[in-house]
């Protein structure tokens, strides 16, 4: 619900409110984001603004938006350059409107609108011609607000944007912690929490993709906020390219700015033209980080994923991926042997990873030539698909559409399709170049190849990989003055191709991937309902990665596979139960050479597959409660997924969590794991028929069996009797 007067605008969701107000000289001020206010809340602008202390107000007041050159010296959300070379703008309130639904951002992913969504559009204008339209869409039930900014040149001369962020928000003075998700290849999205220091702390990417190092989502919270208590504000960028998130602590308070990274971004607007920035999804929670995460999870499941993937009770295939099973070393006979073993474990879908196309036997060749390697697949993909189907398995396939190998036929035919700065040596990473997806004809060329492959036989799943960062970014199709558009146009090209793939093949399950988890963001989730979390499939490592990922993203979107021991990435050995706990909390699949398994070992995998099928609706659609967090020194974790109505729950405990969440294990008393999210009055029964009340489980906890050697783990299913 949006309530407003001439000067004050309040956005209400079920449990949160957001308010802005027009202050002195038309300055738009941020006045509140927190727990739900009364419907007709008064304007919460503080006294200084109301009385307008002309000497200092502009640098001290909490703003809703700002521009440089106006004595507000905090980091600005936008930097325009006018034709006269000046870079100052005084953006003042010019009007606002409440719109039903949500206007589209053409070519960009966004949380989906609907009849129950309202949008506030506020226009700010500078006398020299820059207009910024701030858009806020309110999702009441989900406690979600999305924001963006649309920049328009309403003047008579061209103007250039050097920075065009999506969000700016000021907090009143006080201490805040900043939580970011950081890492590297095979160790993505490890949470890091630290008090915001004076100055600017930022995370970002100039790699062309968000990258392994930082995720484009952050949270701010009070220093005493925990999993279950305290204020927190979460922000997730709905974008899959360069980004910059700046959190600044200044004398007047804190400022958060989020948007496309200004590195090599400049966008000239002719009079009348506009530029739409990607959106940011925001959630406030009063009851700690757990509540914040659950709000993001629900919003992502019900408002971001494509409608056809929103039904969490609809079955999802259990897959086997060939990568860790055989890498590049396979032929059809070997694949069919692997498939036969997969079938014995009751697996549904066989994913043929890298290496299936012309001459691809290692990373040195063939990207861009998307035709079957007849040496490995004599009857092509249709032949393999037919044989798999006869065995009762579906076919899935790996591609890397944005990549091209220097020795490929595609590159030989179109050397200008790859990014290279004229006069510089083209830069190989993983022995490949990147195609210039800012160009329509390049996207068209790859689409023609992909469409042919996807039409050649019933392919049910596509893994879209992207294995390097962008470099040498220069488009042969644009003049020098417009090279600053290329990074963003590239991302738009990726979105366009994913749109074509998913709209033309609506039944196809698309999984995004980027050298593991380098493109794990809300932009990708608009097109694909799942993303490969990390190339590290070790259970212990996955606990950290998936725990961090779960801060914003639900388990149903986290690509997670059961793999072999010792783990191929780090050599670690963990129990079957621990590896299953990690995989079952994500999309659940397998990635190992099952031909080495005995018939009894294959048989022993079936109950896990059956368990996933039986409880898939709960695992994908339930509410996540993080019960015990893993940390880098004592790896172990416990978490549970409860049905929103408290009727059932799945509980997982791995490693040190089994020593009890309140201290070390005692040999004399069983440690207990207190649960959350249950109905206190209800009686629950576990799979052994043991009964507990919800109150007991939440206060005293579930009795744990105690530590049992290397990375022990337990998995429970409880239902209300
Ligand atoms: C990336 C992916 C892996 C695998 C390989 C294939 O590293 O993350 O899962 O697909 O590429 O080359």
Automatic annotation (TrEMBL):
It is an enzyme of class 3 (hydrolase). Belongs to the glycosyl hydrolase. The active site is at residues 465, 535. InterPro entries: Aldolase_TIM, Alpga-gal_N_sf, Alpha-glycosidase_related, GH, Glyco_hydro_36, Glyco_hydro_36_C, Glyco_hydro_36_N, Glyco_hydro_b. One of its GO terms (molecular function) is alpha-galactosidase activity. The keyword DNA damage does not apply. Substrate binds at residues 185, 353-354, 430, 463-467, 513, 535. Keywords: Glycosidase, Hydrolase. This is Alpha-galactosidase. It comes from Candidatus Faecalibacterium faecigallinarum.
């Amino acid at each position: 619900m949006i309530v407003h007067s001439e000067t004050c605008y309040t956005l209400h969701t079920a449990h949160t409110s957001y308010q802005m107000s027009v202050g002195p000289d038309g300055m738009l001020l941020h006045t509140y984001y927190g727990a739900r206010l009364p419907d007709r809340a008064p304007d919460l602008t503080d006294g200084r603004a109301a009385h307008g202390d002309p000497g200092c107000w502009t640098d001290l007041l909490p703003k809703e938006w700002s521009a440089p050159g106006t004595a507000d010296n905090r980091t600005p959300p936008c930097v325009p350059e006018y034709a006269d070379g000046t870079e100052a703008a005084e953006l003042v309130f010019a009007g606002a409107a409440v719109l039903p639904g949500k206007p589209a951002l053409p070519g960009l992913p966004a949380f989906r609108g609907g009849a129950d969504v309202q949008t506030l559009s506020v226009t700010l204008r500078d006398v020299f011609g820059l207009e910024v339209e701030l858009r806020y869409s309110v999702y009441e039930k989900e406690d979600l607000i999305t924001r963006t900014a649309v920049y328009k040149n309403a003047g008579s001369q061209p103007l250039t944007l050097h920075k065009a962020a999506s969000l700016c928000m000021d907090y009143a003075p006080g201490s805040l912690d900043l939580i970011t998700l950081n890492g590297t290849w095979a160790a993505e999205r490890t949470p890091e929490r630290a008090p915001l220091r004076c100055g600017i702390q930022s995370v970002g990417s100039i790699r062309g993709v968000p990258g392994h190092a930082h995720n484009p989502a952050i949270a701010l919270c009070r220093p005493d906020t925990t999993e279950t208590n305290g204020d927190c504000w979460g922000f997730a960028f709905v974008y899959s390219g360069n980004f910059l998130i700046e959190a600044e602590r200044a004398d007047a308070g804190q400022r958060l700015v989020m948007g496309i990274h200004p590195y090599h971004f400049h966008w000239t607007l002719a009079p009348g033209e506009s530029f739409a920035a990607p959106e940011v999804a925001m959630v406030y929670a009063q009851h700690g980080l757990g509540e914040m995460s659950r709000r993001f999870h629900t919003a992502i499941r019900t408002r971001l994923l494509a409608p056809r993937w929103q039904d969490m009770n609809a079955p999802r295939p259990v897959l086997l991926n060939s990568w860790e099973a055989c890498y590049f070393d396979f032929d059809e006979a070997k694949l069919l042997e692997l498939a036969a073993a997969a079938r014995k474990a009751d697996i549904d879908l066989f994913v043929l990873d890298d290496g299936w196309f012309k001459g691809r036997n290692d990373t040195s060749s063939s990207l861009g030539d998307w035709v079957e390697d007849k040496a490995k697949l004599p009857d092509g993909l249709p032949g393999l698909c037919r044989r798999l189907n006869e065995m009762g398995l579906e076919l899935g396939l790996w591609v890397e559409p944005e990549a091209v190998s220097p020795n490929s036929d595609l590159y030989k035919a179109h050397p200008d399709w790859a990014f290279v700065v004229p006069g510089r040596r083209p830069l190989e990473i993983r022995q490949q170049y990147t195609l210039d997806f800012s160009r329509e004809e390049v996207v068209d060329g790859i689409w023609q190849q992909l469409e042919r492959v996807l039409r050649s036989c019933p392919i049910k799943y596509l893994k879209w990989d992207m294995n390097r960062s962008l470099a040498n970014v220069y488009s042969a199709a644009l003049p020098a003055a417009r090279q600053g558009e290329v990074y963003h146009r590239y991302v738009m090209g990726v979105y366009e191709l994913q749109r074509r793939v998913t709209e033309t093949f609506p039944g196809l399950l698309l999984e995004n991937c980027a050298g593991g988890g380098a493109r794990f963001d809300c932009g990708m989730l608009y097109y694909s309902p799942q993303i490969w979390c990390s190339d590290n499939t070790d259970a212990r490592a996955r606990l950290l990665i998936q725990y961090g990922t779960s801060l914003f993203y639900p388990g149903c979107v986290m690509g997670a596979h059961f793999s072999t021991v010792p783990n191929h990435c780090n050599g670690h050995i963990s129990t079957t139960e621990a590896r299953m706990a990690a995989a079952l909390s994500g999309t659940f699949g397998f990635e190992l050479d099952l031909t080495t398994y005995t018939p009894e070992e294959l048989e022993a995998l079936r109950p896990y597959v059956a368990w996933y099928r039986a409880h898939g609706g709960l695992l994908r659609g339930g509410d996540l409660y993080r019960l015990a967090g893993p940390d880098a020194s004592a790896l172990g974790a416990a978490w549970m997924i409860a049905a929103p109505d408290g009727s059932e729950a799945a509980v997982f405990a791995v490693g040190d969590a089994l020593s009890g969440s309140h201290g070390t294990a005692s040999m004399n008393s069983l440690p207990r794991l207190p649960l959350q999210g249950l109905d206190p009055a209800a009686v629950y029964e576990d799979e052994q028929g043991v009964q507990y009340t919800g109150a007991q489980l939440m206060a005293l906890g579930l009795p744990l069996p105690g530590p049992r050697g290397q990375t022990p783990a337990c998995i429970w299913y409880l239902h209300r009797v």
